[in-house]
């Protein structure tokens, strides 16, 4: 289905939990978040019904996210059911990777096609600091297993932060020389309570390119708002995702389902459509999704003077604003 601005909506991001096993400084408060009651969280049955109705509107790609999606027990069963739906072309997941080694086998078997792993530093001590205690080696173990199980291409998402990891660009890029992986640098975005922290640490992705030599821009993922580059002769690629310095709302093809059953047509708007009130029939769910797509704003305003960050934090939404077409 096309929205009011002619954008074909083909991508649904599904947050299956607001809980996380890490406390990344730019994402989660130290004490964690106020946990939602069990009954507020959408059951897998209802999540599946919403996904199924969305396929009738042209959703082809599903990304599971969180919180940390792998802390929700039984996710592989949902993936298995979704993989059988007509119209679904790709099922992916964004994860911090800590629990990957435990689950990768069942996820692959269930029909998961690809994984994006969030890893903001290659230094174990720094990792521990930014995640407030995370075990770097667990993530590396997970990445190796994802490769072994052939869920390719592996994408590593690096939130680029001033004074934190802007000295590691070359180390990340080095990984692309010998490995067929994609390192994607992402600009830090302002959210909820951590707004002032992110403001201090924001740095434009143009600084990534300033640190590189011998690179060329390459065509990858047609229609994608991210730009891809490659060091000449390298096996892997470098992606730059610039929601702040170069927004791509005009090609945005996604909507989001939060773990408490709200559809967010735009990551940076407080607008939410409560799907819980539509759960008594599949026809109503379908209509709720049409309503959400019709309400999708033309663009976000995060880079405008006086922008007031949305109330929900990223951990309550599960991902980014940009879009990889299809
Ligand atoms: N727990 C999973 C993970 O770590 O990938 C999925 C949920 S997490 C909220 C999704 C992604 O959002 C992570 O890669 C995280 O780095 C990113 N993120 C969180 N807060 C952000 C912010 N303020 N700006 C940019 N990216 C952010």
What would your notes on this structure say?
Helix content is 27%, strand content 18%. It contains 9 helices and 12 strands. It has helices at residues 44-56, 75-83, 100-110, 124-131, 136-148, 169-178, 195-201, 206-210, 282-294; strands at residues 11-15, 61-65, 90-95, 114-118, 154-160, 181-187, 215-218, 227-231, 237-241, 254-257, 262-264, 273-274. It has a 12-stranded mixed beta sheet, covered by helices on one side. A hairpin with an 8-residue loop joins strand 7 (215-218) and strand 8 (227-231). S-adenosylmethionine is lined by residues 20, 26-27, 65-66, 68, 94-96, 118, 157, 159, 186, 188-189, 191, 198, 314-315, 318-319.
Topology of this protein?
Blueprint: E1 11-15, H1 44-56, E2 61-65, H2 75-83, E3 90-95, H3 100-110, E4 114-118, H4 124-131, H5 136-148, E5 154-160, H6 169-178, E6 181-187, H7 195-201, H8 206-210, E7 215-218, E8 227-231, E9 237-241, E10 254-257, E11 262-264, E12 273-274, H9 282-294
Helix pairs in contact: 1-2, 1-9, 2-3, 3-5
The chain binds S-adenosylmethionine.
S-adenosylmethionine is lined by residues 20, 26-27, 65-66, 68, 94-96, 118, 157, 159, 186, 188-189, 191, 198, 314-315, 318-319.
